[in-house]
Amino acid sequence: MAEVTTPLTSFDAVTGFLAANAVHYGLSFLQAVVILLVGFWVAKRLSRFVHKTLSRSPHFDATLKPLIESVVLWSVRIITIIAVLAQFGVQTASIIAVLGAAGLAIGLALQGTLQNIAAGTMLLVLRPFRNGDYVTAGSTVAGTVEEIGLFTTTLTNADGIYVCVPNNQIWGQPITNYSRNATRRMEITVGIALDDDLDAAMSALRQHVSDDQRVLGTPAPEIMVKQVSDSAVIVNVRVWSLLGNYWGLYWDLQRNVKETVEGVGCSLPYPTRTVMQVPTQTLPDAAQQRH
What we know:
Blueprint: H1 7-56, H2 65-87, H3 92-109, H4 111-126, E1 134-137, E2 141-148, E3 152-156, E4 162-166, H5 167-171, E5 175-177, E6 183-193, H6 198-211, E7 222-228, E8 232-242, H7 246-263, H8 282-290
Antiparallel strand pairs: 1-2, 1-5, 2-3, 3-4, 6-8, 7-8
Helix pairs in contact: 1-2, 6-7
């Protein structure tokens, strides 16, 4: 005999089904919220811990600190989001596949941006310069490095002007770092008149640079004749100094070499030219002789 289902029985079944699912999905929702809050809290705390740990290390490069903090923060957040989606039965493998396909499409559309990211990554990994270094890249980029990001590098030029350069324009050019080495060589030239005492001038210059405490003894200073021109003997003064003393010593030597040379009776000649004027009355005679 067939069982007859009354409306009351159907209502009780639906109510029971809804109640069971409400409890199930309600618990899943609460678990997802808890996982999300705890995961984001852990990501922030872990990022702060990494920041404090790296800040305590004086030997760690400051240019890598923001990158490492961002990687730690977003890695934990992404893992948290995937765990939240798994609470609702979402297949995370399919999400990753969709994200990969979307990333490929976005990458093709943003090739220039990805080139800047690749160049920024190479700058951060290979570190041809760091924060505070004065660098030049090609003929257009020059300044003191303030920050190296994934997309751009910010600098301050010699006039105090803020400069923001895409990483690709820096990585694709020859990079000159003026702050990397602890010592630097400078060259200063001075002209001695042809009839002056060249040995006395060179000895005075050698003594002067030796007495300056900012000039390094190793490598030793060099005083040499660079060129003999029509009006002077060009003497080259080469000295090494610490990077912090370079510009002060350079400007002082530019002035002191003149006073040193003049102190031993030598002079700094000016280029001269002798002009000979042929008498005009001889010109017709010369013309007649040719005919």
